[in-house]
Amino acid sequence: MSLPSPIAWTPDFGVRLLDQTLLPGEERYLEIGTVEEMVEAIRSLRVRGAPLIGIAAAMGVVQALTRSGGTAVAALSPLEAVHAAAAALSAARPTAVNLSWALGRMMLRADRHGSAPGLREALIAEADVIWAEDRAMCDRIGEAGLALIPDGATVLTHCNAGALATGGRGTALAPVYLAHERGRRVHVVVDETRPLLQGSRLTAWELQRAGVPCTLIADSMAASRLRRGDVACVLVGADRIAANGDVANKVGTYGLALAARAAGVPFYVAAPRSTIDLSTPTGDGIPIEERRPEEIARWGDRMVAPGGTLVWNPAFDVTPAALVTAIVTDFGLVLPSELARQAR
What we know:
- By secondary structure, the chain is α/β, with parallel strands linked by helices.
- The protein folds into two domains: 7-138, translation initiation factor eif-2b, domain 1 (Four Helix Bundle (Hemerythrin (Met), subunit A), Up-down Bundle), CATH 1.20.120; 144-343, Translation initiation factor eif-2b, domain 2 (Rossmann fold, 3-Layer(aba) Sandwich), CATH 3.40.50.10470.
- It is built from eleven helices and 16 strands.
- It has helices at residues 35-43, 50-62, 78-90, 97-113, 119-145, 174-181, 198-210, 222-228, 253-263, 294-297, 339-343, and strands spanning 7-9, 15-18, 29-32, 153-157, 186-191, 214-217, 233-236, 240-242, 247-250, 267-270, 276-277, 298-299, 302-303, 316-319, 326-329, 332-334.
- A seven-stranded mixed beta sheet has the order 6-5-4-7-10-15-16. Strands 11-8-9-14 form a four-stranded mixed beta sheet, covered by helices on one side.
- Strand 5, helix 7 and strand 6 form a beta-alpha-beta unit.
């Protein structure tokens, strides 16, 4: 099974990123050497997926002490440059809690080390630990969710929560890949995921590379597919989970959860401990990023809406905990009502 590697260090500890905005047509890797370049890569979705954003941000902090570090931080002391880098990276995308979680880890390591020699090496080591923990997390989520995917199962997913979104084999797709590795027949129904098509461009691409059969559908077809009765479960990722089990994920997830409830299909969310935000009591407190109107009003270079049309373009929605059958975490299968207690 061949899974993509969307992130890596370069020999001089810049960052090598797979530009996900070009998939599936072109597999191009970028070299990131400044904080500003990493901010742009995160904001423009060249790197995406809550766990992978956290890893990329951690590696991005290192760029404050590598080469020029970018014009925003070049004139500062090393510790000041690291703090400025973290502030810039934190503002790149507000919804995915892994971003602030990873940056918090990096700042704690920096503050403990102080201005003594070896700060850069200490931050590289911390970023490597965050990355290694993410790979292990993916494997544990795969094991925790494996029982949800019996031989011959069809699974429906939304957006991309596979290897392209993490430092390992993924969150929602980890049980799928593990089932495939162990010889189970599994088929994935992939929502295209409008307006940026992460399902059709990314999920279908990596499933094909891994040899996992999949069928692409438009988002508006999901309810009809669930009503057919051949889908064993819905399995999606998350960008932030509130303490009560409310889930923020790519917009369209809430509607999918409603359709699954109506069809009597279990709805599972897969996410690591780092995506659980116990400081946010409910989904009402999760900030929802709103993106450019052009993402909806244009299709490639072509306008598909009249000029001046008002557009509402939230990147995420919040699925109430009551619609979530269970959360597949790196510490096991958890009911939303038990999440806060078990995640501590």
